[in-house]
Design the sequence.
């Protein structure tokens, strides 16, 4: 059965391609390329060990070459919004911050925000704070030392 290795590589190629189509996450495209190379090698050599070596070599090579390019050009880049610009900035508490009662507000660059304490401790009105992070429309702040 000299055609059996070709059928096996063809089945693997289809399986890897279907897995890639279902996941859409660049999971098995490298192995599909390796299976294609191994399938083509069946026309030149009957030695299964050479075919496996070609499969592994092409899979690893395509992963080493394609993955960094895909991460750079295909995967979405995080674009900071205007709201992200307040992180690390100074603010002033305009309404006492108390996480237990869910109250608190600060002003950053002339804009009022709902605020919560980063460490959970209450912060009195008029205190200078630093914005640590944003969750939704709330700023999490800590008192300046």
Sequence:
């Amino acid at each position: 059965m000299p055609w059996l290795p070709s059928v096996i590589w063809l089945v693997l190629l289809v399986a890897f391609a279907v897995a890639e189509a279902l996941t859409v996450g660049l999971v098995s495209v490298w192995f599909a390329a390796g299976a294609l190379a191994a399938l083509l090698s069946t026309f030149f050599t009957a030695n299964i060990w050479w075919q496996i070596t070609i499969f592994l070599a092409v899979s690893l090579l395509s992963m080493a070459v394609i993955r960094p390019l895909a991460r750079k050009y295909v995967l979405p880049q995080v674009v900071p919004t205007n709201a992200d610009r307040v992180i690390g900035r100074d603010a002033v508490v305009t309404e006492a911050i108390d996480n237990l009662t869910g109250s608190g507000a600060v002003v950053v660059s002339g804009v009022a925000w709902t605020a919560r304490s980063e460490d959970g401790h209450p912060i009195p009105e008029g205190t200078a704070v630093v914005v640590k992070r944003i969750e939704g429309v709330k700023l999490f702040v800590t008192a300046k030392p």
In short: The first helix runs from residue 4 to 23. The CA atoms of residues 94 and 106 lie 5 Å apart. The radius of gyration is 28 Å.
